[in-house]
Specification:
Blueprint (H helix, E strand, L loop, with lengths): L1 H15 L5 H13 L11 H6 L6 H13 L3 E3 L2 H4 L8 E3 L1
Parallel strand pairs: 1-2
Helix pairs in contact: 1-2
Length: about 90
């Protein structure tokens, strides 16, 4: 699931910036794996991700496609994403 890679990327940045120790970074990723939420494989979203490739990144498109599939609101801090044409889900900018 993409969320795991997104979090791993943030943890890596924190480690490289000296904000986390190697031990704490490893614990954070271990905790992430143990979180009890359903992870949805992105492979089933790829056709929709590609439909959106002209307007948003594949990462953002995967989140949008999942929100569309679940009839959910996509919550983001990205104002640009909230204005992207072609999205079929409600978007809330926080």
């Amino acid at each position: 699931a993409i969320i795991d890679l997104e979090v791993a990327s943030v943890v890596r940045k924190g480690l490289r910036a000296g904000l986390l120790t190697e031990h704490r970074a490893a614990l954070a990723l271990s905790d992430l794996v143990d979180l009890p939420f359903e992870r949805v494989p992105h492979t089933g979203l790829m056709r929709r991700v590609w439909e959106l490739h002209h307007n948003i990144t594949p990462y953002d498109a995967a989140y949008a496609a999942l929100a569309e599939l679940l009839s959910a609101t996509l919550v983001t801090t990205d104002t640009r994403l909230s204005k992207a044409p072609g999205l079929r889900c409600p978007i809330e900018v926080v």
